[in-house]
Amino acid sequence: MDVNLALMALPGTELQNVKYVLSYPVASAQCSRFLARRLPEVVTVAANSTARAARDLADKKDVDTVVIAPQRAADVYGLEVIELGIEDRPGNKTRFLLVGRDTIPPPTGQDKTSLVVYQRADAPGSLVGILGEFVARSINITSLQSRPTKADLGSYCFLIDCEGHVMDEDLGDALRNLQMRAASVKFLGSYPSESVSGQVDGPPTRALREDVDVSYVDDEGYLVLAGVPDQTSREEADAWLAAVRSGVV
Question: 111-245 — its CATH code?
Fold first, then answer.
């Protein structure tokens, strides 16, 4: 969904009298350049959502406060739009996911997959080994975030979004190898991605990239991570992948 934000206030509010800007913190951050330019002296106040900010202003009638919210909020709560399109980056979007149990949409040829990867050992090169599974098969990672597991100090997991579907051979091989050797993998889902061009790419190739050092690849095309022995048998990793794929409708 496109993110289009507006500055709004009670009807008749003068910007020179404004002391506070109320909004959801993410929305305020997305308009930081506008605020620095137009309202450098105001205090930013956090609200639970942009809609809640607009409602609170309408209820409390604070004439020294403005709100950052979508234009629709002004229509709903009787506020006056002072300026439209105040976000720093035009074309910004918010992604929403429909979450369910047990069912995975079939591959379309233009899909994304989300997963959480837990390192089995926090050692030099462990993250490189995880990412190497994707690099070796030319699988594009579109998002990578680290989060503390709270199990031990310094223990992190990685939230990964990548291109491809769990039914694709190359992505399946990468996930199987991760589960077997490098990490514990929590599969979150495969789903159609928004196509920028509207064109569907052809089927992914299973070939390893030519620039991958073959000394790290075994006879079946799996990366061998230096100093990382198998933690799960291939049979167990195959069973895990089969169980994940069984949810595809």
Answer: 3.30.70.260
Same fold, 6-84 and 111-245: no
Tokens 């990490």, located at residue: 183
Q: How far is CA 114 from CA 66, 143, 162, 189, in A?
A: 38, 9, 7, 6
Helix (H, G, I), strand (E, B) or coil at 121: coil
Strands 111-119 and 80-84: unpaired
| Residues 109-124: tens digit of each pLDDT | 999 999 999 877 666 7
CATH class of the 6-84 domain in this structure: alpha beta
Residue holding tokens 């620039």? Answer: 211
Any idea of the CA torsion for 30, 33, 35, 38, to the nearest 10 degrees? -150
CA distance 192 to 195: 9
Please check whether residue 199 is in contact with residue 150, taking contact to mean a CB–CB distance below 8 angstroms. Answer: no
